[in-house]
Amino acid sequence: MSKHVYIKTFGCQMNERDSEIMAQLLAQSGYIPVAEQTDADLVILNTCSIRAKAEQKVFSLLGSLRKQKKQQPELRIAVAGCVAQQEGEQIFRRMPHVDIVVGTQQLYQLPEMLGRLERNETKREISCNLDKEFTIPPFQRLLEDAPHQLAAFRKFVTIMQGCNNYCSYCVVPSTRGREISRPVADILEEVRLLVARGIKEITLLGQNVNSYGCTNAVAEEPTGFADLLTMVAAVPGVQRLRFTTSNPQDLSTELMQCFRDLPNLCPQFHLPVQAGSNAVLKRMNRKYTRELYLEKVAELRSYCPDIAIGTDVIVGFPGETEEDFEQTMDLLETVRFHGSFSFKYSDRPHTRSTDFSDKVEEQVKGERLQRFQNRQDAISLERNQEFLGKTVEVMIEANRSSGSQGRTGTNHIVHFTSPTNLLPGDLALVTITHAGQHSLKGELADKEKSNR
Ligand code: 5AD
Ligand code: SF4
């Protein structure tokens, strides 16, 4: 009888990609994915620990799984990802109904771990050491087994894992370990295989893609991120290319020039600033100033005037004064980000800022977050209105009788009516007629498919 697996993913795109890898590995052991937790023989929570709230969500879902396991004693529960890495054995103590704890470097071992449980060789499985010598295995063999045509038209490709920056608030160095880059040859091979299976859009993933290759000897030749990007862009069939996430301190001119030089690199840049005050940036151990950040934004725009820049902001970092926060608001007015993710600061295990004094009151954090988000929402709307009357190229995501949905190179969602012969992954030219806060509406400008 076939077994069913339900994977719930929390957190970032790195985790989404890891969940996909787990699903592919498990498919080779006969597990079929299901959409409902209650239909599963195996539930995997691929967890995130970046903020306190993310971690709380994991534990509350684990709590509710206890009931399901009472009714269904054969159910296996696995905790993977950053909370697994952070808590290790503790998870079994807090949640005795959990069967497997698998760390961020061990997800590839999941089938073997499950096998030992199924054969009753062990009662519980845990593997979550962080190894400095760890290398990311090539995923090609997974793709070789995949159906000829993949259901999707866009995919993530992990190019590096971990982070060496030690921002004082950030849990990632302790959950994902030191920075490790994948070899160029592995990455290019994976991209080629994806394109051969119909993938048109590739997003390169890493916690700090800008320092790709610089940090270890695994990338066989000294290839920087701009070089890697250029090589991936040159793979025939890559119609759209994106990447995330960048640290402003490592953002090189060569990388910025890629936006001028590579026609398939989408004009979108996620560049987390975190705070607008130099005093706060210093305590965050971010190695740039607000002035440097603004210079980088100006330089980027000089190479690609229409680039959509997004950011991440933390409000209420320990010691953040009203004046410091005003500096963040001021930076928002200066850059006028197309969009941003903003968060209230929360203490995380093994981070330096957890021990900082002058914690900001919860209520003050809430007020600052609200002020920031209100202003960002208004700016996002104004930014979207800049598209009115323009004709943009969108890649189709969904085509329903009620209309189509696509995405611009700048990563804006566009709704429009279209003839039904357009398929997900096709490109179309759309003239924008309406701009909302979260999406655009338009009309097909060119009935012919554009085949760039
Ligand atoms: N508290 C609040 N937000 C945080 N982030 C990272 N660590 C914390 C923390 N301790 C935010 C940053 C980062 C995003 C992924 O999450 O803005 O860029
Ligand atoms: Fe969350 Fe960071 Fe782990 Fe991604 S790497 S799951 S954002 S803690």
Structure commentary:
The protein is an alpha/beta fold and 452 residues long. It has four domains: 3-127, Methylthiotransferase, N-terminal domain (Rossmann fold); 150-266, Transcription Regulator spoIIAA; 270-385, Transcription Regulator spoIIAA; 391-444, Nucleic acid-binding proteins (OB fold (Dihydrolipoamide Acetyltransferase, E2P)), CATH 2.40.50.140. It is 35% helix and 22% strand. The chain has helices at 13-28, 52-71, 81-87, 90-94, 110-118, 140-145, 172-176, 184-196, 225-233, 253-261, 278-283, 290-303, 322-335, 362-385; strands spanning 3-9, 31-33, 42-47, 76-80, 100-102, 125-127, 154-158, 160-161, 180-181, 201-205, 240-244, 268-270, 308-315, 339-344, 391-400, 403-408, 413-417, 427-435, 440-444. The strands form five sheets. The chain has a six-stranded parallel β-sheet with strand order 2-1-3-4-5-6, with helices on both faces. The chain has a five-stranded mixed barrel with strand order 15-16-17-19-18. Strands 7-10-11 form a three-stranded parallel β-sheet, with helices on both faces. Helix 5 links the parallel strand 5 (100-102) and strand 6. Helix 9 packs parallel to helix 10 (253-261) and helix 13 runs parallel beside helix 14. The longest helix is centred in the C-terminal third of the chain and has 24 residues, at 362-385. Residues 11-12, 14-15, 48-50, 81-82, 171-172, 175-176 line the site of iron/sulfur cluster.
